[in-house]
Design a protein that fits this description.
The complex is a heterotrimer of chains A (about 250), B (about 230) and C (about 230). With about 230 residues, chain B is mainly alpha-helical. Helices cover about 80% and strands about 0% of the residues of chain B. Chain B has one domain: Orthogonal Bundle (MetI-like fold). Classes of the chains: A alpha/beta (about 250), B mainly alpha (about 230), C mainly alpha (about 230).
Chain lengths: ~250, ~230, ~230
């Protein structure tokens, strides 16, 4: 359903993506791992055209896009059929929780207000935030804000949800709630790409793990293959630095 | 549009006579309004107290009324009434004898005490309250605490606002023509009227004000950089 | 010393109706200032260095000129300039036009700084989250970014309105009849017999107006505080 081919991106002299290929099938939960600076966040952002790739091709829902030259209409089409969950939540500060979720439906997709609210409430229910529908983001904890961020993404029934380190800005005790929500979505066969550092989550939920370093995909495979039988030295190094192998709890 | 170059040169020379007046005004007003502004700011930060209330009304009045209205009130209106009163009572003091420059010093300083106090209040309250408490706890007097601990920390925040205040003062000094003080604006005004070459006259002083204010801004930028390096902020 | 409260009261009400003129030029200058100030702010946020420098220099120059000098330049210079370059004659226009032009320039320059800093204070993620929710860039600006900018900018905008009213009071120097101009003519007509009463009344009108505006702004601020 989503395929990227040879995506390249530089910031000034800094080559962040040096030709990345990935493919995602419907219902896949793809986790992208890698040290910071490996380009995983940038890759995710180019999919939603938040960042323009310098070159590369994307096949999405059977259509092919030039990632550098895609026009306004194409960009909008992709954005309307994808959703993005931000590291620092990025809830609209001037909208209530409910309005945050309905905004993309009513304005972006022309869904009638009543219908949008029904959908939004269902999404909020799913993440356990329905009770806070009338709150403004500034009154919520980080974990709550991120759950709303996820509801905002789910509500528009996208073909794919892109998660950009959804828990890395959270206090440790709040991480669990958010991961629980994402797990739940994974079980509903929602296609997603998750950039994260949460290893046990990756192992649990992903059916495909991609390891990136220095702007390229080093290795990809099932969680089992990556975590227990990594082929590349670079992957082994990374994993051993994150979690000492003998301490690793399944 | 044709500009009279000869006149521009002549005005420039005439206006130069007003430069010391403008500078004197600015320096004297800064000399008094900065320390007094700090005092008003500190008094006002301590919200209770009659003095704090009085100062807050004072600041509100200065901020809420145009400078020219203050000038008319103090320079044009008040002396007339005082003079009438003195004449009725046969007191032989000549209020009209007070020079315009004295009024100018007084009125600009009064305004700038209020302006400065507001900037200092903002800068000082941005410093964590614990700083003053810690200073007191090791035995410093409140004055020492402010002078040695709080004010130096506030300085980095205050400098940009202070720069704004100084350029504001330069601009406000252009109003002293209303008190018959011959600063650069007043001279340009009379020169322009005498030769009916207003545009040239005002262009000349506009350039002078721009030069002066941009220089002031540059100096403050350099100062700010020095202070930031010093405190390694 | 004589100060007659009755006359203060009387003149207060005689001058007050002319506040309409003051509010007129302040309101119009605010409007023009918001429009042109946004454009100037956009200049200063540009990637292209030349455009950005133009915005910065423009701001620096007009921020440095005393308002009274700017007013005289506009009053004496602009009619000549327009007549000689594009052939438009504004010499017989109402005095208020020159005041509006002058304080619109002041307003534009101040507001451009306020708008610029309000824009940079909004997290880029707000815009990104909006477009990735499927909003068009223009919708993202109008519905998400600008409302938050208004909240940030509001206290400054209130101050700028007061500033415009105060600087606009210089209009009497070119013969505009606003509250100040009216006070001057009342003073002349009464041979300075009530000079202190008249100018006290004038000062009070300005003061009350400023306080009311400040309070009004606080109310609006609270309305758009979005739970903060």
């Amino acid at each position: 359903m989503l395929e990227l081919k040879d995506v390249k991106k530089s910031f000034g002299k800094n080559r962040i993506l040096k030709g990345v290929d990935i493919s995602v099938n419907k219902g896949d939960v793809v986790v992208i791992l890698g040290p910071s600076g490996s380009g995983k966040t940038t890759l995710l952002r180019t999919i939603n055209f938040l960042e323009r790739a310098d070159s590369g091709t994307m096949i999405f829902d059977g259509k092919t896009y030039d990632m550098k030259r895609a026009g306004k209409k194409e960009v909008n089409f992709v954005r309307k059929n994808t959703a993005f969950v931000f590291q620092n939540y990025c809830l609209f500060n001037n909208k209530t929780v409910l309005q945050n979720v309905t905004e993309g439906l009513i304005i972006g997709r022309k869904v009638p207000k009543a219908e949008a609210e029904v959908k939004a409430k269902a999404a909020l229910e799913k993440v356990g935030m329905l009770d806070y529908a009338d709150y403004y983001p500034s009154r919520l904890s980080g974990g709550m804000q991120q759950r709303v961020g996820i509801a905002r993404a789910v509500a528009v029934s996208p073909d794919i949800i892109l998660f950009d380190e959804p828990t890395s800005a959270l206090d440790p005790e709040l991480v669990g709630d958010v991961l629980k929500v994402i797990r739940k979505l994974a079980k509903e066969d929602i296609t997603m790409i998750v950039v994260t550092h949460e290893m046990s989550f990756a192992e649990d939920v992903a059916n495909k793990v991609i390891f990136m370093a220095d702007g390229v995909v080093v290795e990809e495979g099932t969680p089992e293959e990556i975590f227990y039988r990594p082929k590349e030295e670079r992957t082994r190094q990374f994993l051993s630095r994150i979690i000492p192998v003998d301490n690793y709890v399944i | 549009m044709k500009l009279d170059h000869n006149f521009i040169k002549n005005t420039f020379i005439a206006v130069l006579a007003g430069v010391p007046v403008t500078f004197k005004l600015i320096l004297v007003v800064l000399l008094f309004s900065i320390p007094l502004g700090v005092v008003v700011a500190i008094v006002r930060m301590n919200k209770s107290g009659v003095l704090s209330k009085i100062f807050s009304v004072y600041v509100s009045f200065i901020r809420g009324t145009p400078a020219m209205v203050q000038i008319y009130l103090l320079y044009n209106a008040l002396p007339v009434v005082i003079m009438r009163f003195f004449q009725e009572k046969g007191i032989g003091i000549d209020v009209y004898g007070i020079k315009g420059m004295t009024y100018a010093y007084f009125i600009l300083t009064a305004t700038y005490i209020a302006v400065m106090s507001e900037s200092f209040r903002g800068g000082l309250s941005a410093v964590d309250k614990g700083q003053l408490e810690a200073a007191k706890s090791i035995g410093l007097t409140p004055f020492q605490g402010y002078y040695r601990i709080v004010i130096p920390q506030a300085m980095a925040n205050i400098l940009p606002v202070l720069a704004n205040n100084v350029t504001g003062l330069v601009k406000m000094s252009s109003l002293v023509f209303a008190m018959s003080v011959f600063d650069i604006t007043a001279i340009a005004k009379t020169e322009g009227a005498r030769h009916t070459t207003y545009v040239e006259a005002y262009l000349v002083i506009a350039v002078m004000y721009i030069t002066l204010n941009l220089t002031i801004e540059l100096i403050f930028k350099l100062l700010e950089k020095r202070i930031k390096e010093y405190h390694a902020l | 010393m004589r100060f007659d409260i009755v006359y203060l009261w009387k003149y207060f009400w005689k001058i007050l109706p002319y506040l309409r003129v003051t509010l007129e030029y302040a309101g119009l200058s605010l409007l023009f200032g918001l429009i042109f100030g946004s454009i100037l702010a956009a200049f200063k946020l540009q990637k292209y260095r030349i455009i950005r420098y133009f915005g910065v220099v423009y701001t620096a120059v007009f921020r440095s000129i005393p308002p009274v000098v700017l007013l005289f330049l506009v009053y004496y210079g602009l009619p000549q300039l327009l007549l000689n370059t594009v052939g438009i004659d504004i010499q017989n226009e109402e005095k208020i036009l020159y005041v509006i032009i002058t304080i619109s320039i002041l307003s534009m320059v101040s507001l451009s700084e306020v708008i610029r800093s309000a824009y940079t204070s909004i997290d880029k993620g707000q815009y990104e989250a909006a477009i990735s929710s499927g909003l068009l860039p223009i919708q993202a600006m109008v519905r998400i970014v600008i409302p938050q900018m208004i909240y940030v900018a509001l206290p400054n905008i209130g101050n700028i309105v007061i500033y415009l009213i105060k600087e606009g009071s210089l209009g009497f120097t070119i013969g505009l009849v606003d509250v100040f101009g009216k006070a001057n003519s009342l003073n002349q007509n009464s041979y300075s017999n009530y000079i202190l009463e008249i100018y006290t009344a004038l000062a009070l009108i300005y003061w009350f107006t400023s306080i009311l505006l400040e309070k009004g702004m606080k109310l609006i601020e609270r309305r758009v505080s979005y739970g903060r």
